[in-house]
Structure formats: C-alpha cells, structure tokens
Write a structure and sequence with these properties.
Elements (H helix, E strand, L loop, with lengths): L8 E5 L4 E10 L5 E6 L2 E6 L7 H14 L6 E5 L5 E7 L3 H8 L2
Parallel strand pairs: 2-4
Antiparallel strand pairs: 1-2, 2-6, 3-4, 5-6
C-alpha cells in the first residue's frame, strides 16, 4: 500500500482488508461524531451513556453505518470499560476508513 495511514489506523491483514483502529471515546455527548485526534487516537464523541455497554454498542453501530459494513465485521478488541479502545474492522478499504472518519 502506498498511502500513509494515520497513527490511529494500523493494518492487521492486507489480504482480508482488516485494520485496527485506536480510539478515544467520550460518552454522553449530544450527538455521535468524530472530534479529531487525541494522543494519536481518533477521538469520537458518543451520544450514549457509559453504562452497561451502551456506549460500546453505540460505537459499533455508528462505525458500521459510517463505514457501510456489517456490525459483525467490527470487533471491540480492548477497552470494554475504558475510553481508550481498540477496534478491529474487517472488509473495509483503508482509504474508505480514512475518508469516512476524518473531519
């Protein structure tokens, strides 16, 4: 791949178009949106409370809609109870991810 990936996006497997996103999530916002970068991570404000996994569910649903991929293609790898999360995304082109998630 010739394009330089942002620090928050790492290629895991080029054959299956699998990438890992490093995210900083801020629950309890008015609406779900990308807020820019925060310490090398993509900052996403979530319109969901940080209780009982609601913010994680909202994040996965929002990513699936934004990237136009199925929810099952998104997996939360780390950060279940933290604002710092790592998410695996399968079946999406890196350029589409960057284009969809940058402001």
């Amino acid at each position: 791949m010739s394009t330089q990936l942002p620090p928050w996006l790492k290629e895991e497997d080029s054959k299956t178009n699998t990438y890992v996103l490093a995210l900083y999530c801020q629950p309890g916002a008015k609406k779900t949106e990308v807020q820019g970068e925060h310490d090398g991570r993509l900052k996403i404000r979530l319109a969901a409370p940080p209780v009982e996994g609601k913010a994680n569910d909202a994040l996965i649903l929002w990513l699936s809609k934004t990237l136009n991929i199925h929810r099952s293609a998104i997996e939360l790898l780390a950060g279940d109870l933290s604002r710092l999360k790592r998410v695996r995304v399968s079946g999406a082109d890196s350029q589409a991810i960057v284009d969809s998630l940058t402001i």
